[in-house]
Q: What sequence folds into this?
């Protein structure tokens, strides 16, 4: 099974840091209300503690997520394994693939990464994303899945 590029961990940690700052800001806004209205003993450093706790949690979960994330293109389907608390095993048969995109957000572009998004037929929200690939690998995966989907469509035709 293939692993993601190590730099994807930085993308995930930055997302956690943004969330940590947002929750810290929310805590800073709500703290006076909670202290004044409910007499909760929340010290002035509570927003900082929230930010540090969420950032630490984000780092731990990011490392675990990276260690568990795997994908592989086999002869009949794309296989994905991921998940920290709930392990998710996804099989995307080539015959179900409708189209494949390569996607790069601003942070991914900055770090030289890309994601491959596989859109599938059948159910709503059944699309899968393989994040954290170097752009050349994402393009190669996109082309390979496209070729395999076209071949599978021909074999599955009535």
A:
């Amino acid at each position: 099974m293939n692993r993601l590029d190590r730099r994807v961990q930085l993308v995930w940690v930055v997302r956690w840091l943004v969330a940590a700052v947002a929750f810290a800001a929310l805590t800073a806004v709500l703290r006076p209300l909670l202290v004044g209205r409910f007499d909760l003993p929340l010290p002035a450093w509570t927003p900082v503690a929230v930010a540090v706790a969420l950032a630490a949690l984000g780092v731990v979960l990011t490392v675990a997520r990276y260690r568990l994330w795997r994908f592989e293109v086999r002869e009949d389907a794309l296989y994905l394994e991921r998940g920290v608390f709930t392990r998710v095993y996804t099989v995307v048969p080539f015959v179900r693939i409708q189209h494949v995109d390569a996607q790069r957000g601003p942070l991914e572009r900055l770090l030289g990464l890309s994601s491959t998004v596989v859109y599938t037929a059948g159910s709503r929200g059944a699309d899968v994303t393989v994040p954290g690939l170097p752009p050349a690998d994402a393009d190669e995966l996109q082309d390979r899945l496209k070729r395999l989907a076209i071949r599978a469509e021909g074999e599955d035709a009535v």
User: Anything to note?
Assistant: Residues 8-66 form one domain.
